[in-house]
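Margin note: ligand = protoporphyrin IX containing FE.
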Amino acid sequence: MNSLASASSVLRLGLHVLAATVWVGGQFVMAGLVPALRTLDPNAPRVAAQRFARLSWPAFWLLIATGVWSYAAVHGNTTSSAWNTAFALKMGAVVLSGVGAFLHTRATTPKSRGIWAGVSALASVGALLLGVALAG
Ligand code: HEM
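Resulting structure:
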């Protein structure tokens, strides 16, 4: 019989998942909107991306903060090597998604901007799936 999560788990995981919806979901929404924005004004994608960055980076830091909280909250009960391997892989995906997103914002050619956006989005989805696996 499934029991309800405690209030602190609801807050911790709720904030973690909310931040993931902005960081991961936001990247895909932006990718979907850019072609339409470009038809309005060649500068519109850059202006929208700058606004998105004001939401996405705070969401990334919230993921880190609630992630550390989650690690502290659950790692004690979970000593399986599979869990630890999944956690290590997830940390790699998190770093890749953050570095990819940063290099995307610093890219000087459309090609490198596209490549780093792809790296960030795929690594973010990897972190999300590994997160669900960790939650068990
Ligand atoms: C791109 C960044 C990240 C994304 C997209 C992400 C996403 C997720 C998702 C979707 C879950 C599953 C929640 C659930 O099923 O209820 C989760 C769980 C978890 N995440 Fe993250 N996460 C990220 C970063 C981090 C970081 C940086 C850490 C640790 C420092 C972390 C530690 C955890 C832990 C320990 C769990 C399991 C929580 C539990 O079992 O209660 N996450 N994550």
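Residues 13, 16-17, 20, 23-24, 63-64, 67-68, 70-71, 74, 94, 97, 124, 127-128, 131-132, 134-136 surround protoporphyrin IX containing FE (CB under 6 Å).
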